[in-house]
């Protein structure tokens, strides 16, 4: 057997482009390496704050994200994702910049989830800030013509405030309550929703509680990352 080299480090199949943040990344968050049962490699994109990416659009940061993606590819990762679903707007540009698969946002799952549902059902999207999740984000994910219902957590007391505001401390119980309440309102107001996709990469710590509250399949960035990991690191049989 001949083994091929070329990298300094091996075994980190997924690279993650991280926003530059202060808020806690609890177990289940994409920024907590213990969330995964396989090694991941992180790359922090300087000046990419939550407010700049979510509220301001961060178009001027695209070159920095491209640079980070290329560095991760050069370090040997098999696929790349990000730590913010709003980076969906960079999907085409980032995918064109490297030769490994890039999935910028969990919203890539929206078309897939819709195809799983009955024709009269819709996909529910839970986001950290509904006002700023635009048609442009959905179109970049191939979901521009998918029937969706969007619900944000910005009316809560903790989740959106702490994460978009990049606070040093997070009241996890209050954050969980915000996310679950938004999910329950989404389903109460729109019973035609057949599955939920969590836009925000900080929501997976609460995915199980959301599912228990609404009784529907919940898709998030962790479900997508694990799926891609199995594609680039196939198991032997």
Structure description:
The structure is a single chain. This protein has 237 residues and is of the alpha/beta class. The chain has two domains: 14-105 and 223-232, Rossmann fold, CATH 3.40.50; 106-220, Rossmann fold. The protein has helices spanning 50-54, 62-74, 91-97, 109-116, 135-140, 159-164, 172-189, 207-214, 221-232, and strands spanning 14-18, 40-44, 79-82, 102-103, 122-127, 148-152, 193-198, 218-219. A four-stranded parallel sheet has the order 2-1-3-4. A four-stranded parallel sheet has the order 6-5-7-8, with helices on both faces. β5 (122-127), α5 and β6 (148-152) form a beta-alpha-beta unit. α7 packs parallel to α8. The longest helix is centred in the last third of the chain and has 18 residues, at 172-189. The protein is globular, with a radius of gyration of 17 Å. The two termini are 19 Å apart. The relative contact order is 0.17.
């Amino acid at each position: 057997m001949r083994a091929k080299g070329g990298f300094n480090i091996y075994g980190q199949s997924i690279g993650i482009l991280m926003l530059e943040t202060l808020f806690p990344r609890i177990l289940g968050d994409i920024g907590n390496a213990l969330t995964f049962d396989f090694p991941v490699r992180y790359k922090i994109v300087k000046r990419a704050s939550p407010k700049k990416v979510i509220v301001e659009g961060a178009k001027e940061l695209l070159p920095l994200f491209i640079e980070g993606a290329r560095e991760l590819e050069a370090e040997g990762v098999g696929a790349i994702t990000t730590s913010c679903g709003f980076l969906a707007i960079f999907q085409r540009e980032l995918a064109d910049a490297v030769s490994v698969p890039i999935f910028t946002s969990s919203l890539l799952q929206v078309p897939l989830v819709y195809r799983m549902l009955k024709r009269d059902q819709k996909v529910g999207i839970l986001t950290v800030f509904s006002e700023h999740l635009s048609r442009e984000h959905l179109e970049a994910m191939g979901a521009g013509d998918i029937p969706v219902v969007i619900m944000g957590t910005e009316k809560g007391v903790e989740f959106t405030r702490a994460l978009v505001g990049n606070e040093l401390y997070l009241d996890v119980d209050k954050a969980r309550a915000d996310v679950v309440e938004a999910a329950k309102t989404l389903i109460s107001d729109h019973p035609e929703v057949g599955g939920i996709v969590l836009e925000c990469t900080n929501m997976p710590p609460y995915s199980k509680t959301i599912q228990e509250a609404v009784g529907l399949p919940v898709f998030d960035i962790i479900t997508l990352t694990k799926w891609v990991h199995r594609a680039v690191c196939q198991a032997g049989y």
